[in-house]
Inverse folding.
């Protein structure tokens, strides 16, 4: 039995009459937080942070606290349904799991036989730590096409860090960096990927210096010693300007560079193309601030960079990541305590091994959509979404006949949303697994009821790079909901993959844990396990790159035909690249600002969370608002050359007068028609997905920076 090291749990059980408390692991965002789930009369009654968890130390955000509102929401889908009317009609009938999975399996086998396995695209979005099981199913089926957010979210960090230093460098908050540079990230709001806001805040309280790189005055930027308010989309130029200072003032770690860096001389030549005066002109950041930040980061040891998705949703996605890794590397902050550590996983089968990537036939891998164009992405089994939409709408390079989306709502989350909608309307067959009938699910043929984290057993943080694994223990069963892992395990049997699956998915959990010599029933009795923590491992065995060194000059990118060194490219739609368009659309629009209660398109149904944030908000500088005749709280129209949407104005001095910042992923589940207002405030109606606007190596869609105009909404009084 698990032992609780704190007495208040037993006291609360006695005082409030709870039946029991279950230790588990939240997954309302990218996950990671240990939780205590209190039950009463067989239902979840309360959720609290687990003080024993090494990830969050008892803290918990609003999303985690509201998890039960998701699980028990009256509109939640709790049984499989099949569409009986036209797409988008909202007409459904209840069916059994056997009927649903048999129908999906029948379609899969038919399309594979007639058009090839590549005509079937699997997809996932926000993820429920389901990527390994989805890739396993796809690879065994023979389709190279798995549509993820990986082209512009976290995937680029993994892809570029693997080719640079072997794995993703993680900030070692446990050993308190003395300087933290937060770049395009707001982790106290978003709790991204491998991180939580609490350890970061603890390191600041311990005295760390703080540099914030952000176009907006976030709460992190407000606390910073140095705030670099850059022009949106110029991150690579700013990083290269800081590198210029560090190189030319000889503030770099000379021993690390001499012994462990590959490509130093051409790298120095490249950074010398970005003198500080030129970079200041590009980025709008004053020269003295660039120098101040560079010197502070290079001379305060140990130092670390907290980076985020904002730098990846740009045309310079891969080079943004590579330039930041160069800052980590040449300052000697790689794999040192309190720096950026290359943590080791526990002894398990990792995501790649479980995903059965080696079992995808080479002939099929060559058919990956966009694989030849976006070779860095293709090397990591990632595809650009437009390649899928083109394969549906234009049947190029071949026809995609079927989509199976799990925990994904691409109508809201992918660029050029109207094109996405057209593709989902046209595709022959689509299955979706989700909690609700979202705007994407409303276009499906069959929708499966997905389980929340409260309703499954799983190995939490399986995919992350901080080295921890934590047991997620099933607390309740709601309706007929099933985990993604269970449904794909069953579907695998139905499409001829039985030898690679299990009678139930506990066998899959045992398979993951097998190298460690334990089984799921053993692991669920533990608090966590962690890989061995060692530092400066490169001194013994080098880095896991082709040269065994930290590659500032990427040999793999060179082999694939890309520039082996990072460089700045002007955003495809900016005052500089499109001066004529800028005259008509005078503001730089940045998108994707996070809200504490939402996770991309999720949680707008939940009372506690929607109460925090009732309407979509666009931030506008007071001078801009006055110029455009916009009042606080007024509904305004945001318009690009591709369309227009409405959001509420927030007058905010913490943004440049030439920049406006809009929120993403907005829809209105309270609107009971099947469209759910997907095109009212969806900022991705304004974004572009043309291939020449994407990162050339990674295929990342440039959704963060574009040109717009903004003006008061006319002749509409109704409130959303």
């Amino acid at each position: 039995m698990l032992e609780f090291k704190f007495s208040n749990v037993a006291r609360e059980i006695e005082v409030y009459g709870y039946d029991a408390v279950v230790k588990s692991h939240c997954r309302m965002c990218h996950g990671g937080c240990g939780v205590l789930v209190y039950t009463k009369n067989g239902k979840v009654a309360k959720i609290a942070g687990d003080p024993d968890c090494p990830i969050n130390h008892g803290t918990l955000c609003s999303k985690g606290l509201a998890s039960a509102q998701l699980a028990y929401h009256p509109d939640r889908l709790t049984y499989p349904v099949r569409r009986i009317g036209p797409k988008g009609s909202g007409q459904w009938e209840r069916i059994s799991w056997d009927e649903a999975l048999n129908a999906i399996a029948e379609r899969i086998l038919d399309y594979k036989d007639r058009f090839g396995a590549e005509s079937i695209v699997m997809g996932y979005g926000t993820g429920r730590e389901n990527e390994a099981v989805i890739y396993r199913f796809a690879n065994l089926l023979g389709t190279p096409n798995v549509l993820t957010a990986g082209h512009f979210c976290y995937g680029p960090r993994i892809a570029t860090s693997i080719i640079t230093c072997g794995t993703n460098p993680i900030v070692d908050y446990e050993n308190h960096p003395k300087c933290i540079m937060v770049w395009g990230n707001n982790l106290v709001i978003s709790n991204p990927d491998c991180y939580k806001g609490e350890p970061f805040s603890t390191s600041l309280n311990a005295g760390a210096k703080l540099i914030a790189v952000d176009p907006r005055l976030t709460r992190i930027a407000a606390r910073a010693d140095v705030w670099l308010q850059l022009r949106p989309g110029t991150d690579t130029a700013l990083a290269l300007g800081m590198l210029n200072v560090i190189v030319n003032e000889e503030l770099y770690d000379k021993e690390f560079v001499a012994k462990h860096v590959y490509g130093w001389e051409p790298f120095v030549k490249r950074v010398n193309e970005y003198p500080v005066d030129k970079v200041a002109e590009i980025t709008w950041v004053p020269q003295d601030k660039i120098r101040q930040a560079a010197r502070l980061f290079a001379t305060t040891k140990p130092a670390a960079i907290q980076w985020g998705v904002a730098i990846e949703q740009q045309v310079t996605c891969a080079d943004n990541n590579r330039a930041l890794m160069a800052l980590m590397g040449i300052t000697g902050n790689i794999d040192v305590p309190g720096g950026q550590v290359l943590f080791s996983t526990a002894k398990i089968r990792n995501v790649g091994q479980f995903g059965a990537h080696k079992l995808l036939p080479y002939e099929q891998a060559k058919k990956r959509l966009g694989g030849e164009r976006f070779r860095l992405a293709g090397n990591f089994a990632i595809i650009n979404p437009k390649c899928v939409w083109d394969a549906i709408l234009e049947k190029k390079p071949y026809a995609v006949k079927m989509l199976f989306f799990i925990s994904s709502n691409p109508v809201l989350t992918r660029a050029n949303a109207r094109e996405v909608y057209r593709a989902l309307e046209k595709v022959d067959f689509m299955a979706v697994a989700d909690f609700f009938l979202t705007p994407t699910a409303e276009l499906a043929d069959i929708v499966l009821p997905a389980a929340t984290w409260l309703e499954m057993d799983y190995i939490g943080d399986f995919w992350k790079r901080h080295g921890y694994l934590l047991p997620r223990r099933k607390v309740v069963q709601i309706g007929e909901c099933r985990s993604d892992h269970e449904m794909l395990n069953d579907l695998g049997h139905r499409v001829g993959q039985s030898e690679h699956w299990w009678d139930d998915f506990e066998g899959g959990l045992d398979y993951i844990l097998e190298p460690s010599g334990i089984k799921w029933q053993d692991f669920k009795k533990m608090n966590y396990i962690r890989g061995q923590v060692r530092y400066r491992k490169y001194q013994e065995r080098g880095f896991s790159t082709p040269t065994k060194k930290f590659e500032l000059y990427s040999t793999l990118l060179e082999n694939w035909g890309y520039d082996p060194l990072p460089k700045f490219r002007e955003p495809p739609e900016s005052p500089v690249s499109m001066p004529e368009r800028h005259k008509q659309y005078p503001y730089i629009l940045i998108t994707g600002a996070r809200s504490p209660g939402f996770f991309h398109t999720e949680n707008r149904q939940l009372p506690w969370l929607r109460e925090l944030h009732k309407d979509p908000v666009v931030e506008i500088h007071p001078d801009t608002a006055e110029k455009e005749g916009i009042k606080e709280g007024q509904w305004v129209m945001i318009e690009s050359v591709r369309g227009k949407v409405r959001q509420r104005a927030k007058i905010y001095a913490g943004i440049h007068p030439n920049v406006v910042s809009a929120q993403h992923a907005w829809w209105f589940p309270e609107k009971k028609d099947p469209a759910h207002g997907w095109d009212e405030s969806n900022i991705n109606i304004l974004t572009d997905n043309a291939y020449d606007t994407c990162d050339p190596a990674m295929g990342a869609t440039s959704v963060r920076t574009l040109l717009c105009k903004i003006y008061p909404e006319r002749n509409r009084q109704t409130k959303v």
Q: What stands out?
A: The chain has three domains: 81-154+347-530, 169-343+538-559, 579-712. Residues 81-154+347-530 form a domain with the Rossmann fold fold (CATH 3.40.50.740). The first helix runs from residue 8 to 16.
